[in-house]
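I had to read the description of the data format several times before I understood it. The format is easy to grasp once an entry is in front of the reader. For illustration, here is how one protein appears when written out as sequence plus structure tokens:
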Amino acid sequence: MDGTERLYYALGKVCYAVAKADGVINYEERNKLHDIVVNATKHNNYNFNISEIIFHILQKDDGMDLESTYNMAIKEFKTCSNYLTEDMKADFSAVLEKVARAFDSVTFGERNIIERFRMDIDEL
């Protein structure tokens, strides 16, 4: 994967953490999460399939806790920060908001991850 692909892979991990913050991710949530990320990022016209990256993450639920998943994602963002644009930062935050709102209201745990992400990514 190149740097941009790695950023989207990291975004997938943070999306997964947000979605899982309120409990187990069921099949319907996985599909909705996939649709949100694909629709939010399709305007970028990258030469890779975002949906494949996201599904890889969702299907690989290896029982990692949210903190570990989030930290792995932020480490990836830091490693590839030279590929990260201000527009991507805004887009990524918007995607996380959509993920959190996909089912019911935004929970305390989801809000905490999103706010933490905004602070962490602003530092890059």
In short: The mean pLDDT is 83. The helical segments are 3-20, 27-41, 50-59, 66-79, 86-101, 108-122. The two ends are 20 Å apart (CA to CA).
